[in-house]
């Protein structure tokens, strides 16, 4: 027993994106700029929505929650990546790796559920406008957001438990810049076929299921808009198109990563950049630049700040 415990892995080595110094400096600059854009863009949205009474509709309430989730989501991995790129210290403790895995899936799956709720909100607003106010009341919105966080917590707990029950006694090198289940499973000192299929049925099916619900809701919106052509409906269609772009950036890499056993194909660490860095950076642009109300509120906020 003592020999088994002494051979247990106590830390992992994150190889990152590149060993070349020039590329390391380039990645550090790009990650730092992206992280700054995520923080500033989403904080601006939160402050704007919270300070402007005109932005009190369910859509902006959900958008404010999405911005908070994006800040949490990218903060799970990016600060650690920046420190690693700057210092060159690639080791991460086993406990820290498991914590990163837990919070990554907790916040990431909560965002998927919230995007699904936002699509339902747009469907109700466009296709069922007479029932919209009653169904999407503030109490219902809080309940839906709470359900998103609860669903994310349950999903992440399952993923973390599946990982913790694996023995790690051999290689400890992770070919990525953060700890995630597909990369960690490959390092286990046991047959992981069952765990891989459980991962695919958990993370993979959640990603695919939410994405299909999103596509179906936007397809129904498209059918409704085509049946009633007007300037307002075409504006709604344009907004939905930008939302589809946003969810595609998040869901397609996740489906590619999780909806298959870990050993079938290598997971590209560059694909992971799309849903850990690029998607949270694009969300503020996609969800706000299409809204004249948000832009007008930001301009009023800027004028108020200049007066102080």
Task: Kindly describe this structure.
Mean pLDDT is 83; it is low at 1-6. Helix 2 (21-51) runs antiparallel to helix 3, helix 2 packs across helix 11 (292-307) and helix 9 packs antiparallel against helix 10 (269-288). Strands 2-1-3 form a three-stranded mixed beta sheet. It is globular and about 60 Å long. The chain starts with a helix and ends with a helix. 37% of the residues are buried. It has helices spanning 2-6, 21-51, 58-87, 94-127, 129-135, 138-164, 181-185, 193-227, 231-258, 269-288, 292-307, and strands spanning 11-14, 91-93, 173-174. The protein has eleven helices and three strands. By secondary structure, it is mainly alpha-helical. The protein is 77% helix and 3% strand.
Summary tags:
11 helices, 3 strands, disordered N terminus, single chain, three-stranded mixed sheet
Produce a short descriptive summary.
The protein is mainly α.
Strand content: under 5%
**Rg from Cα:** 21 Å
The largest pleated sheet is described as: 3 strands, mixed
Spatial sequence of strands, sheet with the most strands: 2-1-3
The counted number of beta strands is 3
Gap between N and C termini, in Å?
Answer: 67 Å
Helix content: over 70%
Oligomer: single chain
Shape: globular
Sheet/helix structural class: mainly alpha
As residue ranges, the low-confidence spans are 1-6
**Helix count from the secondary structure assignment:** 11
Q: What's the mean pLDDT score? A: 83
Order of helices and strands: HEHHEHHHEHHHHH
Write the layout of secondary structure elements.
Blueprint lengths: L1 H5 L4 E4 L6 H31 L6 H30 L3 E3 H34 L1 H7 L2 H27 L8 E2 L6 H5 L7 H35 L3 H28 L10 H20 L3 H16 L1
Parallel strand pairs: 1-3
Antiparallel strand pairs: 1-2
């Amino acid at each position: 027993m003592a020999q088994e415990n002494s051979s247990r892995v106590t830390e992992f080595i994150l190889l990152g994106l590149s060993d070349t110094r020039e590329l390391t400096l380039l990645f550090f600059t790009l990650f730092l700029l992206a992280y700054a854009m995520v923080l500033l863009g989403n904080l601006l949205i939160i402050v704007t929505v919270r300070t402007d009474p005109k932005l009190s509709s369910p859509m902006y309430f959900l958008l404010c929650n999405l911005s908070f989730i994006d800040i949490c989501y990218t903060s799970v991995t990016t600060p650690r990546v920046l420190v690693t790129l700057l210092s060159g210290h690639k080791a991460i403790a086993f406990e820290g790796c498991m914590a990163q895995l837990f919070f990554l899936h907790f916040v990431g799956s909560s965002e998927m559920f919230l995007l699904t709720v936002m699509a339902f909100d747009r469907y109700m607003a466009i296709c069922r406008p007479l029932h919209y106010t009653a169904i999407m009341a503030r109490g219902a919105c809080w309940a839906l957001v709470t359900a998103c966080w609860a669903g994310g917590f349950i999903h992440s707990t399952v993923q973390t438990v599946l990982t913790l029950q694996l023995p790690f006694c051999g290689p400890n090198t992770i070919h990525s810049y953060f700890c995630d289940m597909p990369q960690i499973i490959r390092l286990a000192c046991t047959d992981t076929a069952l765990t891989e299929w459980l991962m695919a049925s958990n993370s993979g099916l959640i990603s695919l299921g939410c994405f299909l619900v999103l596509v179906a809701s936007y397809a129904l919106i498209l059918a409704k808009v085509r049946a009633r052509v007007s300037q307002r409906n075409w504006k709604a269609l344009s907004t939905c198109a930008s939302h589809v772009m946003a969810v595609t950036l998040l869901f397609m890499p996740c489906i590619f990563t999780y909806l298959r056993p870990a050993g079938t194909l290598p997971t590209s660490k560059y694909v992971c950049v799309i849903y850990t860095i690029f998607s949270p950076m694009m969300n503020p642009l996609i969800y706000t630049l299409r809204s004249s109300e948000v832009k007008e509120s930001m301009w009023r906020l800027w004028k108020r700040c200049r007066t102080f």
